[in-house]
Amino acid sequence: MKNLLILGGGTAGTMMANKLRKELKASEWQIRIVDKDPLHYYQPGFLFIPFGIYQPHDIVRTKKEFLAPDIDLLINEVEEIKGRENKVLIKGGQELPYNVLIIATGAQVVPEETEGLKAELWHKDIFDFYTFDGSVALSKKLETWEGGKMVINLAESVIKCPVAPLEFTFLADAYFTDKGIRDKVEIIYVTPLSGAFTKPKATRILSKLLEEKNIKVVPDFYLQRVDNERKVIISYDEQEVPFDLLVSIPVNKGADVINRSSMGDEDGLNFVPTDKFTLQSKNFENIFVIGDATNVPASKAGSVAHFEAEILTENILSYVNGMPMEARFDGHSNCFIETGYGKATLIDFNYDTEPLPGKFPWPVLGPMGLLKVNRSNHWGKLAFRWVYWHMLLTGKKLPVSTHMSMAGKEVEPAKEEEVLV
Amino acid sequence: METLVNVPALATTEEGYLKNHKEWNEDWARETAVQYGIDLTDKHWALLRWLRQKNEEGVALTIRKVANSGLADIKQFYQLFPGGPLKVSSKIAGIPKPVSCI
Description:
A: FAD/NAD(P)-binding domain, FAD/NAD(P)-binding domain, 3 domains, 5-stranded parallel β-sheet, 24 strands, B: 0% strand
């Protein structure tokens, strides 16, 4: 019996287990997932919890219920990956041997990376919404908050779901408007990047949303510390932004076990060096990496994990059959962006193509619009929760191509100046 | 500061990022640095070469990653490239603008 071991039973790990279980004979391959948490959180739902759009019970299930029979789920903590010995050491001292290992240990927020972030005001006036506890605590705070300066701050630019902070900002504007206290709330978006939007077409088309919603943007602000006493955030170049309520997106890192196993990228953020096309680990040929755990320059998002899962299933099957791995991930990402008041926009892009305007998934018909702000996109986002639980996790095919398609996208002719040079 | 003459202009984006990183050369980098009031020292050059190498490897760069390179900590990186250090150093290194997905 051969062993296929998967570390992490989140979106990516669950999809991989279910997809490979359909392909690998149960008489030949044991498939086992190790994860410390028996619960599966619908992470896109964390965004909606603070505003009461989803309730906590809407976004929590057990991991077990999404796994096909003949997949073994072990609830335990991984101590160390021993790549040279083809073994994983788990808490309690047991060693799990593997023929093929998939690392799907994800990314986590680490507020401890920033001085003063997780201190006296944590979960009093400072919150995150990238964790279940954080988003639930923030929902309680917002119920009674009477207004003031709300600062949304990204501590770092490489984060899980990079559009979520912007969606949070838009939803906050709508939430306070509905409550009748928008005039008492100042919303300030503080980012280490050069603006809330950074890609040319998205900037041109969507920047007006910020003005329309009266959101102030502070760019080029790289958070060094939080002064809890004075209630200000301070950057490395000593800029200060005062807050009454700080919604923080803390530094993101990969799992601690990556660090304990000395398998992280040299930058110390615990993401695993991975071939960005094949998704094979750069250091061990029988280790593959998927989802937020990789260091590939794609968004850390569920849609990316989904497109990667299609590619990785093919490549692992080639690998175990001794064939060359021919499937190539193109960096495809597809994200709904809530803009408030029952509307949303949608972006679809890959390693080489920036988000472009157009229709999705079908040219002309849509029904969803790329870089358009409309109701169909919002319905698409809400419907996605059902798709996630019932189709995505269980490994069913979705009607969206794995590689990014140019069909339906509007490509403008090159500008004159670009033609001249 | 040495005055550079006859450095051929290279095509840049509206925001001043080099369009084709392969056209980059050291004279152009020196000239571009001057526009930001920076006289390039060995420390600058080490960082610029590191940035170019990481870009070649397809790494999404952040200030924290630069600091973990061991070449400069975050405060020093700010001192070497005042303003937005990653933005300014990326322009001088001739690599693309640091971006998010949108």
